[in-house]
Amino acid sequence: MAMFFFISGVSLQYNHAIITSCKDFYIKRLVRIYPALWISVILGLLIMRRDALPVNATKVMWSLSGIFALFRAHVVNPWTWFLGTMIIFYLIFPFLSSAISKWPGPSMVSIFALSALSRYFLNVYPIYMTSDQWGFIDVLMPSTFPLSNLFIFSFGIFLIQHGFFPENKHNIKTLSFISALTYPIYLIHGFLLWPSMALSEMFPLKLVVLSILIYILDTLIQKRLKVLL
After folding, report:
1. Domain that holds residue 84
2. pTM of this prediction?
3. How far apart, in Å, are the Cα atoms of 220 and each of 158, 227, 228?
4. What's the pLDDT tens digit per position in 185-214?
5. How many CB atoms lie within 10 A of CB 23?
6. Taking the chain, what is the end-to-end CA distance rounded to the nearest angstrom?
């Protein structure tokens, strides 16, 4: 997930270097997240084995929310825990980007210290919960805690702001495309692996087909919402 957070930081800073309205920015980011998530959950429920995991309305609602890890809820798609972290990052991005721009050195050192200390203390003094039931991810795990991942996200912002990234629009567009394509892959792959968590011969083909389907449907929805918003 580190690469996903890094690419997200790069892509956000490149596409939203100047934010005139936080409200519009937040709406656009939420619209960017949820249609693909909802499509993946619907497809996932259609393809997953009914005897593999007990499914109820509460699990489905939390799965559709994207923020289940923050509330320690059981879901059918626990691998999408990163969405709750990304929503937090979206909320602080306008202020984080401004701080890194004005005070690059102190900001990055402070963020690195926060991320490193978070991982250290959560490893040494674990306070996260575990569950015997599949589908549970705790936000207080060292690898899932938002502060633990803040530095890699901020590093992507920093590179774009201060010109360390190659000044080639094609490279940035490629990263944006990779980010857009990896998102459906992250969303759907777990449904194909469950319950054995083993790769089948058809796994690559199914993953590609379903990911492209989610990408196409999401793109169509995004175009429609762009007109409405």
Report:
1. 2-228
2. 0.86
3. 32, 11, 13
4. 999 988 888 755 556 677 888 898 999 999
5. 8
6. 30
CA 135 to chain centre: 17
**What's the rounded Cα separation, in Å, for the pair 73 and 137?**
8
The predicted-structure confidence for 10-45, as pLDDT tens digits, reads as follows 889 988 888 888 999 999 899 989 999 999 999 998
The string of pLDDT tens digits covering residues 76-97 is 999 999 999 999 999 999 999 9
Specify the number of domains making up the chain. Answer: 1
Residue 171 has pLDDT above 80, yes or no: no
Residue 119 tokens read as: 């991982």
Contacts 24+ apart (CB under 8 A), 28-32: 28/229, 29/87, 29/90, 30/87, 30/90, 31/222, 31/225, 31/229, 32/222
| Residue 10: alpha-carbon gap to chain centroid | 14
- Residue in 83, 78, 87, 82 with CA at minimum distance from that of residue 27: 87
Please report the sign of the dihedral spanned by the C-alpha atoms of residue 145, residue 42, residue 33, residue 174.
positive
Asked if 187 and 37 count as a contact pair (C-beta separation under 8 A), the reply is yes
H-type alpha helices, 69-103: 82-102
Peptide bond into 166 cis (omega under 30): no
Angle at 222 between CA 206 and CA 16, to 5 degrees: 110
Query: What distances in angstroms separate CA 72 from CA 10, 13, 42, 66, 119, one per listed residue?
Result: 29, 31, 22, 12, 19
Burial tier of 223 (Cβ tally within 10 Å: 0-12, 13-18, 19+) = exposed
